[in-house]
Amino acid sequence: METYKFKTNINCSGCVAAVTPHLNKEEGIGHWEVDTKVNDKILTVEANGKTPEEVAAVVAKAGFEAEKI
């Protein structure tokens, strides 16, 4: 299991709610969370078999940006 961190534009609880179904249903994504209190809105994802690019694509499908840091 890999842990990835992304800088995102997921900046409020409504944004988290919008991205939740996309990340929760994606095979290979385990626990994830977004720290909306920091400026970079850090998304931390535990991925099993997913690349950072694949995780970022799931976030993009939800309408948000994710840049691996």
TrEMBL record:
Superkingdom of the source species: Bacteria
Any one GO molecular-function label of the UniProt entry: metal ion binding
Entry-linked Gene3D superfamilies: 3.30.70.100
PROSITE patterns linked: HMA_2
Domain HMA: from-to ranges: 1-67
Signal sequence bounds: none
Protein name: Copper chaperone
Taxonomic lineage: Bacteria, Pseudomonadati, Bacteroidota, Chitinophagia, Chitinophagales
